[in-house]
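Weekly structure sync, notes
Attendees: PL, DS, HV (note-taker this week)

Item 1: FGGY carbohydrate kinase domain-containing protein
DS walked through the input record. Source organism listed as Gossypium raimondii. Sequence as pasted into the shared doc:
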Amino acid sequence: MNMKGKEMLGKGRTRSDTTPLLGKHKQQHQQPHPKNRFHSSPSACSHSISSPLFLEMAAAISSASSSPTSHCNVFLGVDVGTGSARAGLFDEEGKLLGSASSPIQIWKEGDCIEQSSTDIWHAVCSAVKAACSLAKIDGEQVKGIGFAATCSLVAVDADGSPVTVSWSGDSRRNIIVWMDHRAVKQAEKINSCNSPVLQYCGGSVSPEMQPPKLLWVKENLQESWSMVFRWMDLSDWLSYRATGDDTRSLCTTVCKWTYLGHAHMQHINEKDSRDMEACGWDDDFWEEIGLGDLVEGHHAKIGRSVAFPGHALGSGITPTAAKELGLVAGTPVGTSLIDAHAGGVGVMESLPEKENDNEAICHRMVLVCGTSTCHMAVSRDKLFIPGVWGPFWSAMIPEYWLTEGGQSATGALLDYIIESHVASPRLANHAASQKTSLFQLLNNILESMMRELQCPFIAALTEDTHVLPDFHGNRSPIADPKAKGVVFGLTLDPSEQQLARLYLAAVQAIAYGTRHIVEHCNANGHKIDTLLACGGLSKNALFIQEHADIIGCPIILPRESESVLLGAAILGAVAAKKYTCLSEAMKALNAAGQVC
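Item 1 (cont.): predicted structure, written out as tokens:
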């Protein structure tokens, strides 16, 4: 998931990676839900929707201080999204000291969307060095590192070199990006088997998960299939590239590979964290879907050992990786998280008042809003919810069951709605001349329209304009990758005002999609009454306000807007043994900003 609105710096790199790798019906504003424990105050979210505080545009590089820092313990989080690699440095209180971003290359050809692990690693190194330089932090001050990334699929050979997954044959293109939908038919074939493992991913696999993609490669790129020595989730590959330890995360394997994490429930807990032999693979499933060769060698190609997120990997950063990153060899590296799940770790304890009740966390849902939106909720009991991924044991917070809803296109949908309109170039020019963002300009236009038309509230502007947001299928709760989007109420009006209406209708459609997910989860055993939001779209006040009004829940925004980077950094803090467990680190380093 790419955090929307980030400017990116740097050019494409040409170095080669030669280092071997070791083994919609509109409603009026609602009153807060009566069960809500947090309420917005007049000052909390009463800013104009065009306030700079909420802009969905952020500098690619930020630094909290221009003077040299003297922090003893600094934790580094790395997040690889759809369009950029980002690095952030945090102090012992979870405050951002500095961050940097570097772009990554992407190839799009129809349903096929691909990237390069070599390019991504170079971008990571650039971002880490830039963040350290701007925050005036040297490598010795960094006590722990964590990686987060999109759930994209990486293919490498026995030497760690890229193996193509592209029709083009280009060896650089060794990553099938998370949003790639080439494997729809393979997903349908897998779902027709009705394997018991499918009940742990909402009853069916999505083409965005790894088994369908693996099956596609085997059926279409036989030479590549025979060459691949390791198939890895991108975040696992990053930690492997840094440490040489290919232990996989319970997050990636459980959420995207059908690994049954609860196989470890009886003989492991988070505080006894160690590499665990991968006993959660269902060999019958892999045989049945035609991928039985992945079972060979104790599942060596897909993961022989797994660990809780934050578990210290190997001997820390290797000397080679340390030199590339500008860090110190041996610095602890925590087992990784998928980027959305890192956002959950970075925000889920961001409450105005800390709660000691371990059950209280089960009333919250985190919205990680970027190119797509992921909806994270945890429970003590496993809850099977049709059309919603999970329950996943220990996939985000150890020893809790995770429910994961999602919308495949949210930021991407807003980009599409804006960029495909005839007024878009004109609006872009106006935004550039005013040194503001398109979203701020659209929010300004909507406020002006509300006043001119004497509407009681902004939402009423879309009385005759409606959007069904399934432009990239419906991930939850319909679970139909073939679903299509709809725009109702189009006219020949080419004005910026009409574009603003479409933009607002799309925002509302996304919010109604989230409401559908929340209500569906609550109807199946959850008790969600509070939302927390992070990611690029959470910086857009209109986006957040429409969600709060439409869903009828308070929405808490964290103190630190870079929640995914914070979540990744928390993994490093746990790996460095600064905290006994992930939950303790979350309570110490998460902090609330505002309640809407």
